[in-house]
Amino acid sequence: MELKKQISEAFASHFGGEGTFYTSAGRINLIGEHTDYNGGFVFPGAIDKVIMAEIRPNDTDKVNLYSVDMNASASFGLNEADAPAEQWARYVFGVCREIIKRGGTVKGFNAVFAGNVPLGAGLSSSAALESCFAFALNDLFNGNSIDKFELAKIGQSTEHNYCGVNCGIMDQFASVFGKKDCLIRLDCRSLEYEYFPFKIDGYKLVLVDSVVKHELVDSPYNKRRESCERVAKRLGIETLRDADMEMLDAVKSDISAEDYMRAKFVIGEKERVLGVCDALNRGDIATVGRLMYETHEGLSKDYEVSCEELDFLNDVAKECGVTGSRIMGGGFGGCTINLVPDAIHDSFIATVTEKFNERYGHAPKIYDVIISDGARRLEE
Ligand code: GLA
Q: Does 254 qualify as catalytic in the annotation?
């Protein structure tokens, strides 16, 4: 059933009547992985996989939620001590608290939500949920006085303070600022950004989901960030944005081999994002693809956030003649993103499905990417 219809039926049956509809999106990232919390560049875009919510203030100081996908309800108050036990409800609780902490207003409301962003696939379902509610509560209770940068930060702080993931700003930024048919080159240090109309004639972006569930909470994600911060500290700089290989090599003997590899990846990745943007401007798609493969290699060997299945998907892409392929998002499972010439699109999907199935006993999931708008109120 269509998402909106499902939500509106559940809303009527749980709370009666109607509310206002809001939505926000999951994201892809063409290149620039693990650079956001290092003050570097990223190149994401919102996609047509979304979280949608119907919300109505209820004139109390309680929030009542119903998740269609989980077929579960949760209720909580708006004080710090009222954190719900359910992990999924903490994303919404965190958004409420972060708005209040910033001096904004949140009052009680009833909400039903559902989504079609695959969970744990590295497509940022949690950022979509956070931005959907941040946008909605800004609209419903704050006359849209909180700017979009702050909405993204509200989502990020929710992850930090209520969900245990020390993430960067990329996912929430893409989810809030996403624009149809555009990727966003974001400088994560200054938050300056530029929309790049993204359509490469003759190519498609395809996501291949290994269906290995990535779970960033309790994953080594936070450890990666700590490595980067240690190296930056040793170099006397704020973030690795300001480091180059010469500086890193000069402290090589003072840092662990592991920290060295992590920082080496980040320094290379920061340059690759800019390289991809330049290559796109020149129409040099071969270079875009080559840099994507380099990123995969670095994420796998130096940053060590790959897994066997993702490396296998990358190898098959290479064998099939896919122009560029790499792990997307935090890693430890989830998807590869593939830049695929139209001429081999169908055969690549058939081959990767068959080979993966042969090796792992189940098919990967395939998603075509459609770059779409981010957080907004649904007007109709
Ligand atoms: C996750 C985090 C992001 C970013 C990516 C890796 O998606 O939420 O902030 O660090 O991993 O690029």
A: no
Task: Give CA–CA dist 215/195, Å, rounded.
Answer: 30
Q: Name the residue among 370, 378, 380 with its Cα closest to residue 23.
A: 378
List residues bridging with 228 in a β-sheet. Answer: none
The model's pTM is 0.96
Measure 83 CA to ligand 1 centroid, in angstroms.
Answer: 25
Q: What are the start and end residues of each CATH 3.30.230.10 domain in the chain? A: 2-198+372-377
Top-level CATH class of 203-368? Answer: alpha beta
Structure-token match 């509809």, residue found: 21
Confidence at 19, pLDDT banded by 50, 70, 90: very high
**Region 2-198+372-377: CATH code:** 3.30.230.10
Side by side, which strands form the sheet with 193-197?
41-42, 182-187, 193-197
C-beta of 130 in contact with ligand 1 (< 6 A) = no
> What are the tokens at 124?
């940022």
Q: What is the pLDDT of residues 337-372, one digit of tens each?
A: 999 999 999 999 999 999 999 999 999 999 988 999
